[in-house]
Amino acid sequence: MAISLDACILILKEHHILKSSAIQDALPTKMQSVSYDSRKVEVDTLFFCKGKNFRPTFLTMAKNSGAICYVAEQPYPEGKGMHALIVRNVQKAMSLLSAAFYGFPQDDLYVVAYTGTKGKTTSAYLLKGILDQQNGGTTALFSSVDRVVGPRPDQKFKSDLTTPESLDLFRDMRTAVDNGMTHLVMEVSSQAYKKSRVFGLTYDLGFFLNITPDHIGPNEHPNFEDYLHSKLQLMVNSRKCIINAETDYLADVYAAAKATTNPDSIYLFSSNDFLQPAGLPTVDVRVDNIESDMHESRFELYTATDKTKDLGIDGEYELSLIGDFNELNATAAIIAGGLAGVKHDTAASGIKDVRIPGRMQTLKTKDHGEVVVDYAHNLASMEALLSFLKREFSSPRVVVVVGSPGDKGVSRRAGFSQALTEYADVAYLTTDDPGYEDPLDIAREIDAGIDHSKVQVTIELDRAKAIKTAIENSQPGEIVVLAGKGEDMMQKVRGIDKPYASDLAIAKRVIAEL
Ligand SMILES: CC(=O)N[C@H]1[C@@H](OP(=O)(O)OP(=O)(O)OC[C@H]2O[C@@H](n3ccc(=O)[nH]c3=O)[C@H](O)[C@@H]2O)O[C@H](CO)[C@@H](O)[C@@H]1O[C@H](C)C(=O)N[C@@H](C)C(=O)N[C@H](CCC(=O)O)C(=O)O
Ligand SMILES: Nc1ncnc2c1ncn2[C@@H]1O[C@H](COP(=O)(O)OP(=O)(O)OP(=O)(O)O)[C@@H](O)[C@H]1O
C-alpha cells in the first residue's frame, strides 16, 4: 500500500480541508506507511498530529523514525524539512487519506452499520450469525467486544474502542478483504462521528436502534443534543436506512434518513403491539413474541408493506438469548440479512445458537437462585432487563450486583438508583471501572437515590466478594443479576487496567463451590 503526495493534496482539496502545503524537493513523494503514533512510525511514513494529548515532541520522534510528511491543523517547527499538509480538521483528513492509502477497502465489502444507545453489539453478532450461514463464514465484525478480520480463529482480536480510529478502521477493512471477507458488520458509536473516525464512509445498510441519555460528560458529549446529532449522522451516510419505530426522537431520525435517502429505501420495524406512529409511513416489519423461558425465546416476524414482501423473512425464529429487547435486536439483524439476500430458513438457522459474550448469559444453581450475567449498564438497559425478568417470570425476587464507572457516564448513577428502586428487592453496590474516582463515593451516590423501604442495599466494593455473597445468600426461585461488566476482564483503576476474572468466571466458580 502507498499514497502519493499529489493524491493527498487532491483529496484534501476536493473536500476543502487543505489550508496550505509545504513540499520538500529533496524528499520522496510516495508514502509507504501511515501512522498517528510516533512509536509506530517506519521509513517514508505519512504522520498525523492529532488528539488532545498530542505533543510536538511526538513529531520529532516520528521524523527521526522516518516520517517524511506530516498532517496537522497548524505548522510545527519540529516538522521542518518534512512535507507538511496543514488542514482544517486533522481527524477528517486522517479518515479520507487512510481510506485512500488502504485502497478504499469498503468498496469490496457489503457494509452494515448499527448505531443506538443499546443493542449494537447484540444486533451485530446476530447478523454475523445470519450472514455467515449464507456466505460460509466470510463476515467481518467490528464490535466493542471483538474485531474479526478473517475466517480463521486466529484472525480475531479484542477491541479497544467500539468504533476504531479511522486509520485502524480502514487498515482492518483492508486486512478483512485480503483475508477473503465479503461482508462487514460494524458498530458505530456516537464518538465515532464526533471524532470523525468514519468521515467519508458510506454504508450499504445503516440501522438506528434507539437513543436514551448516556455518554454525556467531559470526555464524551457536552449535552444530549450533541449526542443525538452525532448518532443521526449514520442515517445521513447510509444507502438504505432501517429504523426501530419505537425509538425516542423517531421524527428526527426519520428526517435525517430522508435528507439523503429516498423513502423507498427507508424501513421501519417494531413490536407487534406498538402503535403505528402518526405522520410516518406504515411500519414495514413487526415482531411478535410466541414464548420465552430463562434460556431461549421464540418469536414470529412478519412483513407488512410492498417493499418488504419479497424479502422472504416472514416466519418463526428461535433465539438462545432471552429478553424482549433481544427480539427487536434480532429483527434488526434479520432485516439486514433479508436486504442482503438471506431468506427465512437460512436466517433462522444462523441466528438460533448465537450467544454474545457477557450478554444475557444464564447459569443454573441447585439450591440457590438462577444467575444472569448481563452488560446492562445504564438506566434504559437496566430497566429493559429487570422489567423483562419481572414480567416474564411472575415477579421473582430480584437480586442485583452492580457498580457505576468513574470519570464518565455520571447520569448512570441516578439511573441505577431509579431502576433498582423500581425493580430490585436486594442490591449489592460494588466497583465497576472507578478510574480516578473513589468507588465508595460512587456506591454511596447510587445508594443515596434508592428507596430503602423497597430495596435492601449492601455496599461491598470487592466485586468478586459481592458476587459470591449475592449468589450464596440467594434462594431457589430468585434471580441474581450480575450487571454492567459482562465478560469484561479488566477493572480500570487510576489509569491502569487491572486484571479481573470476569463476572461470568467468578459466578461459575462460586456455583461450582456451592
Ligand atoms: C475522546 C476520544 O475519542 N479519545 C480517543 C482519541 O484520543 P485523542 O485523539 O485525544 O488522542 P490522545 O489519546 O489524546 O493521544 C494524542 C495522540 O498522540 C499520539 N502519541 C502518543 C504518545 C506517543 O508517545 N506518541 C504519539 O504519537 C497518540 O497516538 C495520539 O494520536 O484517540 C485515541 C486513539 O488514538 C483513543 O484511544 C481515544 O479514546 C479514548 C481512550 C476513549 O475511551 N474514548 C471513548 C469515549 C470512546 O470513544 N468510546 C466509544 C464508545 C462509546 C459508546 O459506547 O457509545 C467508542 O467508539 O469506543
Ligand atoms: N434494544 C435494547 N434496548 C434496551 N436495552 C438493550 C437492548 N439491547 C440490549 N440491551 C441491554 O443493553 C446491554 C448491552 O447490549 P449491547 O452490548 O448489545 O449494546 P451496545 O449498544 O453495544 O452497548 P455499549 O455501547 O454500551 O457497548 C445488554 O446486556 C442488555 O441488558
Query: Strand order within the widest sheet?
Result: 11-10-9-12-8-13-14-15-16-17-18
Indicate the structural class.
Answer: alpha/beta
Q: Bound compounds, please?
A: ligand UAG, adenosine-5'-triphosphate
Estimate the global geometry from the Cα principal axes. Answer: globular
Beta-strand proportion:
15-25%
> What is the CATH top level name of the largest domain?
Alpha Beta
**Total domain count:** 3
Give me the count of strands. Answer: 26
Number of helices: 15
- Known CATH architecture of the largest domain: 3-Layer(aba) Sandwich
What CATH calls the topology of the largest domain is UDP-N-acetylmuramoyl-L-alanine:D-glutamate ligase
Radius of gyration: 24 Å
pLDDT averaged over residues: 95
Residues in helices, as a percent range: 25-40%
How far is the N terminus from the C terminus? 57 Å
Main sheet record:
11 strands, mixed
CATH superfamily of the largest domain: Mur-like, catalytic domain
Binding site for UDP-N-acetyl-alpha-D-muramoyl-L-alanyl-D-glutamate: 38, 162-163, 189, 197
Protein name: UDP-N-acetylmuramyl-tripeptide synthetase
EC number: 6.3.2.-
Function: Catalyzes the addition of an amino acid to the nucleotide precursor UDP-N-acetylmuramoyl-L-alanyl-D-glutamate (UMAG) in the biosynthesis of bacterial cell-wall peptidoglycan.
